[in-house]
Amino acid sequence: MIDSTSTISDTGGGQGQTSNKNINPFIRPRILLTGLRRSGKTSIQRVIFTKMQPSQTQFLESTSHLTLNQFSCGSFINFQVQELPGQLQIYASGLNSGNGGNNGQASSYDDDSMTSIIGGNYDLERLLKRCNAVVYIIDAQDDYSESITRLNTIIQKGRRINPRIRYEIFIHKVDQLSEETKIETQRDIHNQVRDRFSDPIGGMEPWSPISPMSNSSSPEILINFHLTSIYDHSIFEAFSKVIQKLIPEFSHLERLLNYLLSTSNIEQAFLFDVQTKISIATDSSPTDMQMYELCCDMIDLLINMSEIYGQPNEDGSQRTTDDDDDDDEDYFNDDSDHNQGHEWNIVTQNEEYDENNIQLNGSRKSSFVNSPLGTTPIANHQQTTLLETTSEPASAVFDSMSSSVIKLTGGRALYLKEINRHLALICILREEALTKQALIDYNVRQLKKSIIKLFRLNYQVSRRNVSSSHLVE
Amino acid sequence: MMRKKVLLMGKSGGGKTSMRSIIFANYSAKDTRRLGATMDVEQSYVRFLGNLILNLWDCGGQEAFMECYFAAQKDNIFKNVEVLIYVFDVQSQDVDKDLHYYQSCLESILQHSSHAKIFCLIHKMDLVPEDLRDNLFNERQNMLMEISRPLQCVCFRTSIWDETLYKAWSQIVYQLVPNVKGLEKTLSNFADIIDADEILLFEKATFLVISHCTRKPHRDSRRFEKISDIIKQFKLSCSKLTAAFQSMEVRNSTFACFIELLTPNTYVMVVISDPSISSEVTLINIRNARKVFEKLEKDVSRN
User: Fold this and answer.
1) Does residue A341 sit within a domain?
2) Shared domain check, A108 and A41
3) Where are the compositionally biased (Acidic residues) regions (chain A) (predicted)?
4) What b/e sequence results for A308-318 when a residue is b if at least 16 CB atoms lie within 10 Å of its CB, and e otherwise?
């Protein structure tokens, strides 16, 4: 529950709600998710974060507002996804602030998009300034030239404003394409993006305030391409890679997993966020897509079976079997109590949001208190800015004793163990190694402690830095 | 060896081959899009529980074939039928025609194998809005039971996209399993001895539940089909890695669940809610139970 209150808080701040809820001192990586209209931005989020069936996404309406989703699943995934609606023109206001954000323009979009964009703070520069990664979705089944033009505009801008942004290009909806076309499309898009880049005039729009000078001195731009589809695991895998790059602890986690591998005769190890099936870390050996899929399916199996047989007992006689990880939740409590004054760079941002959002947050909070499983994201279309929060425990049936062992033919086995209530460790190993399962159990317990310690350390460090440092600059 | 003839009939495009492929050939629901129309009759033999062989007659449903089944091929098709599965497409535009063929079918059955068990599947239920499903199903069920007289039919609503398919087929094969009573009794003994909440017995290849013993009431009456579905899904993803599912253990603080091979033809699933019983103990218990169940299976095939 601590997690949930913490995420809610950072948007409620600055409006008199700050007093006791701003307990989230984590640096929260920000991802700007954008692309042309109907490219699949909302669908991707729904499929990953709210477990929507891919087939159901065709009924989603197009997004007309800038939406802000906060995810603080577990200790490491702690990020914000900003979804910039595709049909809005990118409008370079040039002014970064002082637009007078919140004078209720809830219904004004259709008549004059330009003014409302300024009014609604859909200001690309400001968004770029604050984000760590841009995920740009290109519909591969469509003519993507317009999409690329827009992408190039964003990159041009981003390079000037915030050169450290990573660009993750999702060449999306590739499920209907043949392998050959996939590669061809990727190469084509890759070339087009690169080409426009080397030419400082090429990607510029007439209204762009970028001066040609700014291009020459820029450092190299980080662009990655992913072929994705919501109908298979590729979207999860691509998103995992995006997240992994943004997680500051990634290299430490990788090292811990490597260490586990070498001590326990394990072939591969993944650390998964159970709810989203995003893999936040793996060992450093190369992983193949199929193994990743199998791990995802193992999580499904575990959760589905647990939901049938492992529901917390209704008669209240729930066994308290929590053993070694009680402390990892407690310290969080302690610290948060005297952490109220802390407010990181979010404060500035709060002023932009509608007053209504405060109520939204308030009600969200109470709903958490009442039911820890309230997974339905807030979606109030009346508001100019949508806020959705996903931070509840992965599942009520995923608890400190959750574990699973699956044996396959060919002597391979899968081993799953809970790390905290959001994270699961999945190992792939030979069946022979399982004869010493007690040893593996012990090692995994040690790993679990280390991960929790790492989490705690990061928590303390970021707390210390929070008052002085800002996320982006 | 026991052979049992199962007729699968219904209008063309109704989904007969799709469901057969999912249940018996490990297709995923998505894979069935690749299937073409069935020409004439496609016979297949499915080894079920080792000593039982299901002889599946998948009868193509185009009108020309249908007419032929009731005329020239009549004897051949309707002789010695143990089970007739008639598939109705819930979205069919021409219900009268469907019923007409169903009736002709029943007449032939009555003539040639009057003891056959009849199942009607109201298929493609996923295409009906959820709130209308109950009513629609009840309506069709009543109509079919009326029409089927003097024969008895059992109706199921099914869709290849959810677990209802497994429910229907579990019940169908349950009728075919030899010595079900003996199996159930042994299972309940076993459950008492190891203090299990629930034990399910699956047929190995299809993962259909063929027998179960429940010692602790459970709120979810659809859990068996769900489990078949869950495991089947996982088996499919294992097969992508050219590995096959062998055994499984899943637990949290309130339960532990084991799926292990029991006899060469069955898997057993044991659910235990006492966390103080360690995995090894249960696994040894399952291993010991194997002999009993193997003997039971052998006895059946000898008789």
Assistant:
1) no
2) yes
3) 322-334
4) bbbbeeeeeee
Residue numbers of the domain that contains B202: 180-302
A432 & A458 share domain = yes
Q: Does A472 touch chain B (CB under 8 A)?
A: no
Looking at the structure, do residues B37 and B145 belong to the same domain, yes or no? yes
DSSP state, B54? E
CATH number of the CATH domain containing B159: 3.40.50.300
User: How far is Cα A424 from Cα B18, in angstroms, rounded to an integer?
Assistant: 36
Is the domain of B119 the same as that of B229? no
Query: What ipTM was estimated for this complex?
Result: 0.82
Instruction: Among B107, B141, B174, give the residue marking a domain's end.
Output: B174
Its pTM stands at 0.73
Per CB-CB distance under 8 Å, the chain A contacts of B233 are: 297, 300-301
Strands B245-251 vs B2-10: parallel, antiparallel or unpaired: unpaired
For A351-406, how does the pLDDT look when each residue is reduced to its tens digit (9 = 90+)?
Answer: 333 333 333 333 333 333 333 333 333 333 333 343 444 445 556 788 888 899 99
* Inter-chain contacts counted by CB atoms under 8 A, chains A and B: 104
Note whether B246 contacts A407, CB cutoff 8 Å.
Answer: yes
Show residues of chain A in contact with B230, CB under 8 Å. Answer: 300-301, 304-305
Specify if A381 maps to a domain: no
Q: Establish how many alpha carbons lie within 13 A of residue B236's alpha carbon, considering only the half-sphere containing its beta carbon.
A: 20
Interface contact flag, A401 B253, Cβ < 8 Å:
yes
Domains identified in chain B, total number: 2
pLDDT one-digit tens code per residue, B164-182: 888 888 888 888 887 788 8
Q: Are residues B138 and B204 in the same domain?
A: no
